[in-house]
Design brief:
- With about 450 residues, the chain is mainly alpha-helical.
- About 70% of the residues lie in helices and about 5% in strands.
- The strands form two sheets. The protein has a two-stranded antiparallel ribbon. Strands 2-3 form a two-stranded antiparallel sheet.
- The longest helix has about 35 residues.
- It is globular, with a radius of gyration of 23 Å.
- It starts with a helix and ends in a 13-residue tail after the last helix.
Length: about 450
């Protein structure tokens, strides 16, 4: 079909290798998927203890995203990816063999850290090898692979668990090892450590993220019309990283434009996790069986698998902020509808609406982080950005459970209000974010091009 060709044509080999590695890894992601059931049935843990162990996995993931971002810039994308996947494969075997709950909790935290290491490196590698015009398509395909693999894993995990929980962990470890092998053999290192000489004649554009005032008589922060200014370096010639690589995480966490975008993404993640955690409690309160919740979840996965490839054509060249505002509005509508839900078909309709919102949000969200991340700090920016997902996985169930218990159905109207707040936030901050992205593009000394021929 024409739209399929338009979605997949022209992307380089490295992207497809990373795409394949993600799909293989997600198909085998059995172990953590059923960890709560494993703990309560096979290990005799209480529901509260099982929740703490799963929380340990999330805490490890939060640390892994930050560490993965730093290592992706220092070690390289490929080395960081291999470190995460090989470590995760070994730890997963240990997790399946562990018996004391305390040891399982420690290993779960370590697995969470190892699982999160490749995330920033993967996205940074995709940005490395793709020009800006192709990134939205690539991130859309990546989102499709993530959900397609997860849907297959969910279908297989229950069947495998009927025979052996240990098999879940061993197969998971094996598939992770296969992923590492694929990357080791087929994916080149994409990080390019370019150096530029500076001296009397070298004036380089520098991105100002509001961190320095400058004492050489330049304009103050208040007087600067844009986020890019020219700084003349005078003195003996020396080499420096093209964009302040030595700045480290400190540069990232003081970048207000970027952190505002991260905050809006955190709202998106909070709403998404409502459907993965709190929704089942609301459905149980309405007397619906767990199989009904399974139907709602599987419907969302099926919609993404079937419809995600249509999203690039649907959003076209529209501004990222407009698409994200529309996505938040759909999330607000979907979760607000649960306020009225007491039958399965209403839950299905509500989930269909917010799933469309999630599908629309994925490509522009990933493209914006790529635009806001300077080349030399790309891994660190990705690491901080990825932190929102484990953080939301911890905050949303905790706060959402309390809210549902005390507010009842009104909890879902609060979720709707959060969605509208996110939509307004993206429209309000769009101009400054777009100006920052434009200044970063202008400051890049050598335009980013694909590092290899694209597949026809």
């Amino acid at each position: 079909m024409r739209f399929v060709r338009e979605s997949v044509s022209g992307l380089p080999r490295t992207f497809w290798m990373l795409f394949s590695a993600m799909l293989v890894n997600r198909v085998g992601a059995f172990g953590m998927l059923l960890l709560p059931i494993y703990l309560t049935t096979a290990r005799g843990a209480s529901v509260a203890v099982a929740g703490l162990v799963v929380g340990a996995y999330g805490a490890g993931g939060a640390g892994g995203t930050l560490l993965g971002g730093v290592l992706a810039d220092r070690w390289g994308r490929k080395a960081t990816y291999l470190a995460g996947t090989t470590t995760a494969a070994a730890l997963m075997v240990g997790l399946g063999l562990a018996r004391p709950i305390w040891l399982i909790a420690v290993l779960a935290a370590a697995v969470g850290l190892a699982h999160s290491l490749p995330g920033p490196a993967t996205v940074a590698a995709i940005v490395d090898v793709l020009p800006e015009a192709d990134r939205s398509r690539a991130f859309n395909l990546q989102f499709w692979a993530f959900n397609m693999g997860g849907a297959i894993a969910a279908a297989l995990a229950g069947v495998i668990a009927e025979f052996s929980f240990l098999a879940l962990f061993l197969i998971d470890a094996g598939m992770t090892a296969v992923t590492a092998l694929l990357v080791w053999r087929l994916v080149p290192e994409t990080l390019r450590r370019e150096r530029v000489a500076t001296g009397p004649a070298a004036a380089r554009p520098v991105i100002d993220v509001g961190l320095s005032h400058g004492k050489s008589g330049g304009p103050s922060r208040r007087d600067r019309p844009t986020s890019m200014f020219w700084r003349l370096r005078i003195g003996r010639a020396r080499t420096v990283d093209r964009f302040g690589e030595r700045g480290g995480l400190g540069v990232v966490v003081r970048d207000r434009v970027f952190l505002t975008f991260v905050g809006l993404t955190f709202l998106l993640a909070l709403l998404t996790v409502q459907g993965q955690s709190i929704l089942q409690l609301a459905m149980e309160g309405d007397g619906l069986r767990p199989s009904a919740y399974g139907l709602v979840v599987s419907l969302g996965g099926a919609m993404i698998v079937v419809g995600q490839l249509f999203v690039p054509r649907l959003i076209g060249a529209r501004r990222h902020a407009v698409v994200l505002a529309a996505a938040f509005a759909l999330l607000a509508l979907g979760y607000s509808t649960v306020f009225l839900a007491d039958r399965l078909w209403v839950y299905v309709a509500a989930a269909s609406v917010w799933t469309i919102g999630q599908m629309l949000a994925a490509p522009p969200n990933a493209s914006i982080i790529a635009e806001l991340a300077p080349t030399a700090l790309r891994g660190r920016y990705q690491g901080v950005f990825f932190l929102v997902f484990p953080a939301a996985g911890f905050v949303a169930p905790s706060v959402g459970g309390w809210s549902l218990q005390h507010l009842g159905p009104w909890h879902w109207l609060v979720c709707g209000a959060v969605g509208l707040l996110g939509a307004a936030g993206h429209l309000w901050t769009a101009r400054r974010r777009e100006a920052r992205a434009a200044s970063i593009r202008a400051a890049e000394i050598a335009p980013q091009e694909t590092v290899e021929p694209a597949f026809a």
